[in-house]
Design a protein that fits this description.
Blueprint (H helix, E strand, L loop, with lengths): L1 H10 L5 H13 L17 E2 L5 E5 L7 H4 L7 H12 L20 E5 L12 H16 L6 E5 L1 H13 L16 E3 L5 E5 L4 H4 L6 H14 L3
Parallel strand pairs: 2-3, 2-4, 4-6
Antiparallel strand pairs: 1-3, 5-6
Helix pairs in contact: 4-8
Bound molecules: 2'-deoxyuridine-5'-monophosphate.
Amino acid sequence: PLLQQIRETIITCERCPRLRDYCRGIGETKRRAYLDQTYWSRPVPGFGDPRARILILGLAPGAHGANRTGRPFTGDGSGDFMYPVLHELGLASKPRAVTRDDGLKLRHAWIASVVRCAPPGDKPLPQEIRNCGTHLAHEIQALPRVRVVVCLGKIAFDGYMAFLLQTGAITRKSDYRFSHGAEYLLPNGLHLLATYHPSLRNTNTGRLNRLMFTRIFLRARELAGL
Ligand code: DU
């Protein structure tokens, strides 16, 4: 009920006019392969297991991924890389995420992003990250069992650091530096893990391969006591 309420609040959010205009615009022009589809084009709530111990945090919805389907990492190359790994480790019920009603379920995990609207050039403004922080705060408050946060990519990591600073959970961002495999224990007891982002730009070039990504989630499971 609480998570359902938060979901509604996120979906109907209009706090960032620039992002709302941009997302609606994407849904009007579309990508050729998806011309027959109605894009979600609204802010994207997190999804997963309400008892999640692992929070997986991206930066923002993909323009033709989550902004199209309405569920994080669903229907784009990043999700096609990530979900098979989550499935292999028992964190997802299926290896593929296609639509928001494909029946996929997460176990022990919740997937969300620092910003809930697709931003132009994948670059949200600092004010937009601050605006969106309340949505993340609400979801985290409603997920009391989370012990580990996995940040997908440097921009998500920096965004989460900005969020932690804003909420007073940390006092200095400079104590936390992004690198693939970086691991921190936050003052509030949460473990923080960083990985390269599973975007095609990283996975097609071999900067991030499946084994590297799998190892991050093996560690997340371990830190979560799973
Ligand atoms: O049917 P429901 O329990 O209200 O789930 C709603 C939503 O959450 C659906 O997208 C499945 C997902 N979910 C999940 O991924 N893992 C769970 O353990 C429970 C629900």
